[in-house]
């Protein structure tokens, strides 16, 4: 991120996945095993993994097309449907999500840049502000906030916006507009001084530019 012109902008909005963090290398396999056990799935482990991946990719594409968030429970139900698992109407989804969160935080995501706090501190030292704007899927914003707190990064963010809490998703211009309005509630910032940084050309870059804001693509 050293190529970002810090002098040009007054506010920096960051995406989460593949911009700040990536999954722990062991988590996905352990999640697949947990899901298979939790729902008594008889399909082989590789089919469970394939179903989760398929639903995840389809959900990303759907959110990019509609600008709407797809709830966590809906995603789980889609996975079970792909695996021909009957969906029990008495499933305790809150307990299910809590178990997944415990597993996720046990295999804590990794920072893409272990020294990202140095960049954040530099931005703040210039009197500028930072926020987070992230789509969520199987992992909620509440859980992702715990990741930021674990790495001592949460205090750098003036605010955090997650699609599951807003009901809309990037690239919907409305979620970028809300982020911009929250920034201006802190202090006046022109749209040309507001930069969103992310890895997705559609969700992050098109979303920000369609809202009249600036964007930087992480490669």
UniProtKB/TrEMBL annotation:
SUPFAM superfamilies recorded: HAD-like
Molecular function in Gene Ontology: hydrolase activity
Pfam families: Hydrolase
Domain of life of the native organism: Bacteria
Keywords: Hydrolase
InterPro entries named in the record: HAD-like_hydrolase_domain (IPR051828), HAD-like_sf (IPR036412), HAD-SF_hydro_IA (IPR006439), HAD_sf (IPR023214)
NCBIfam families in alphabetical order: HAD-SF-IA-v1
Protein name stated in the entry: HAD family hydrolase
């Amino acid at each position: 991120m050293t190529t970002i012109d810090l002098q040009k902008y007054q506010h920096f909005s960051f995406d989460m996945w593949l911009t700040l963090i990536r999954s722990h290398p062991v988590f996905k396999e352990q999640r697949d095993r947990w899901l298979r056990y939790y729902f008594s799935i008889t399909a082989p482990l590789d089919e469970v993994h394939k179903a989760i991946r398929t639903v995840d990719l389809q959900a990303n594409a759907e959110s990019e097309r509609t600008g709407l968030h797809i709830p966590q429970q809906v995603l789980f139900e889609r996975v079970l449907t792909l695996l021909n698992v009957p969906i029990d109407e008495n499933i305790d989804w809150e307990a299910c999500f809590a178990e997944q969160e415990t597993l996720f935080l046990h295999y804590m995501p990794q920072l893409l840049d272990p020294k990202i706090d140095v960049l954040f501190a530099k931005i703040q030292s210039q009197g500028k502000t930072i926020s987070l704007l992230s789509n969520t899927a199987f992992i909620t914003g509440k859980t992702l906030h715990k990741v930021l707190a674990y790495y001592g990064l949460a205090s750098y963010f003036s605010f955090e916006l997650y699609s599951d809490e807003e009901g809309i998703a990037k690239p919907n211009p409305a979620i970028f507009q809300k982020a911009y309005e929250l920034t201006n509630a802190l202090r006046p910032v022109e749209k040309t001084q507001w930069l969103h940084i992310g890895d997705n050309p559609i969700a992050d870059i098109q979303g920000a530019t369609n809202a009249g804001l600036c964007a930087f693509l992480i490669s």
